[in-house]
Fold this protein.
Amino acid sequence: MAIVVTGAAGFIGFHVSRTLLQRDEQVVGIDNLNDYYSVALKRARLAELEQDKGFTFEKLDFSDFEALKEALDHYTITHVVHLGAQAGVRYSLTNPFAYARSNLVGHLNIMEYCRHLDGFDHLVYASSSSVYGGNTNMPFSVDDRVDNPVSLYAATKKADELMSQSYSHLFRLPQTGLRFFTVYGPWGRPDMAMWIFTEKILAGQPIPVFNYGDMRRDFTYIDDIVDGVIRCMDNPPRDDGTRHTPGSSAPHRVYNIGNNNTENLLDMIAVLEDALGRKAEKDLLPMQPGDVKETAADITAIRNDLGFAPKTKITEGIPKFVHWYKTYHKIN
C-alpha cells in the first residue's frame, strides 16, 4: 500500500513526505523538477527523502496523463496528497499557460486517475488562501463566497475546488481541499518573503516592502501545516448523506489551514531582524498587481472536525527558519 505525494520536491510536499515516512508509510513522490525556483534546492530535499527506504521518486509532469498512469500503475495506491502545482501570484501575470497546464489539466488528471483505483480512500489537494481574492470579511471563512479572484493563480485554485466538487458528486470520490495561508519554515521557497528578506538583509541590500508595509498575513509554520494535512488525510469525508458543503452531500470538503493569528508585515520583519541580529533597510513600494492587503484564516471548521490547533508563533518559527537558512547556505 502506498501514498502518493505530488510536488514531493517542493516545500510542503517534502515535509509531508518526511512525516509520512517517519510513521513507516510507503511514499511515492512525484515532481517534474521544473526551474520556477532553484532545482538544486529541490534535489537537496529529495536527497533527504531518499535516505529512507520507504520513499520512491518518480520524475514526471502530472499534466501528462499517460506518463502519470504509466508511472503509478506499478503501485497499490490508497491515498494521494496532491501538493504539486504552479505556485506564485506574480509569476501568473507573465506565464499564464504554466498555470493552466499544472493547476487545471494536472488537477483533472490526478482526479481522473484516482477515481479508477480499486480500494482508494482519499484525495487531499492543495488549494490556497488566494481564492478569497477581494474578500473584505475578516477572518476568511470557508463559508464566504470566493468568486472575486484577483490573480490567475487564485482563479485556477478556485477552479480546482469546483472540479473536485463535481468529481466527488459524480463518482463519490472522497476529497479534501486545503486553503493554505502563507507557509514558512525550514526548506522553504526562495520566492517567498521570508527567504527574500533573509537573503537581502544578510547581503546588506534593501528589502521590498509592498503597500508601504500596510499588510497583514496569517504566517503559518510548516510543522503546523503538516499536522493539518496528515489529520485530513487520515479522515476522509464520509459519503453517508452528510452535507460537507452547502447544498451538497458529495464526499468533498474544504478547510482553511492557517495560524489563526494574523501578523502585521512590519512586525514580522522586526522578528526577522532580531533573529538575524541585523536591521533591514526597507524599500517602501506600492501594492503589487494580484496581491491582497490582508489574509486571516478562520480555522473553526478544521478545529471542530479534526482537532487542528496550530502551535507555532512567529517568534518561535522565524528563528528556526533563520537557523536552517544559515546552515543550508553555510553562513556562520
The CA atoms of residues 100 and 312 lie 34 Å apart. The chain has a mean pLDDT of 94. The first helix runs from residue 11 to 22.
